[in-house]
Amino acid sequence: MEVKQTLHKLLQNFYVKNILWAIGIGLTLVIALLIWLNIYTLHNESITVPDLRGLSVENASLILKNKNLRFEIVDSVFVKGKAPGAIVEQIPAPESNVKEGRIVFLSINGLTTKKVQVPDVRDQSSRQAEATLTAVGFEVAEIVEVSSEYKDLVVDIIYNKQKVMPGQKLPMGSKLILNIGDGMGSTNSDSTQNVEKVDNAEESWF
Q1: Which of 16-20, 39-43, 104-108 is modeled with the greatest confidence?
Q2: Greatest alpha-carbon span in the chain
C-alpha cells in the first residue's frame, strides 16, 4: 500500500511528470526515425545490375526500366569488332547491388568508325613502320617488295589499291600494304637515260 502511495506521489510530482514525458517523446522520436530510415534506405533490399555489354541502347533501356533503374550515356568510343551503337562499358559493373532508381552510366561504340592520320613511315624499316602503324590503330595486312635501292625500307603505303600520303586520314582498323625496297633497284636510271641521249646526239653530228 505504501509503495503504491509513493509511486502515486512521484507520478503527481511536476518534475517527475516532465522527465517521464521527455523520455516518452524521446523514445517515440527514436522509433519513428528508425522506421523512416528503414523505409528510406530500403533496408535489406537491393537490385542486381544486369550485364548490358553488347546490347543496343533500346534493349538495355527496357531491361533497366523493368528493374526500376535509370541510365545515362556518358561516352562514345570505338572498339574494333563491336557493333556500332552497342554498349561497351557500364558503371556500376554487372552484378553490382544498388538501390532502386540508381543511374547506370553507359559507354557505347561509335556509330561511325573513327578516322586517324597516317603517320609518315617512309624510309623506315618494315618492322618499325609496322609497329608505328599498329600503335595508332591500323593493321599491316601485307608487305610487298618493290624495286628500290635501299633494302627493307618503306617506299609507299597502299590502301584500297591507292597510294596513301602521310597525314591522310583513314578509318581506324584499315588494312594497309607496305611497299618496301628490295635493294636491287637503281636511282641512277634518269642519269643513264640522259647519257644515252647525249651519246645519240653526238653520233648524229657525224
Answers
A1: 104-108
A2: 159
Cα–Cα distances (Å) from 19 to 28, 66, 148, in that order, read 14, 52, 103
pTM for the model stands at 0.47
Q: How many Å apart are CA 52 and CA 88, to the nearest integer?
A: 8
Q: What is the pLDDT of residues 145-168, one digit of tens each?
A: 999 999 999 999 999 999 999 999
pLDDT for 102 equals: 94
Q: What is the pLDDT of residue 180?
A: 95
Which single residue is written with the C-alpha cell 545490375? 49
Contact 62, 13 (CB under 8 A): no
**The 3-state secondary structure of the chain, one letter per residue:** CHHHHHHHHHHHCHHHHHHHHHHHHHHHHHHHHHHHHHHHCCCCCCEECCCCCCCCHHHHHHHHHHCCCEEEEEEEECCCCCCCCCEEEEECCCCCEECCCCEEEEEEECCCCCEEECCCCCCCEHHHHHHHHHHCCCEEEEEEEECCCCCCEEEEEEECCEEECCCCEEECCCEEEEEEECCCCCCCHHHHHHHHHHHHHHHHHC
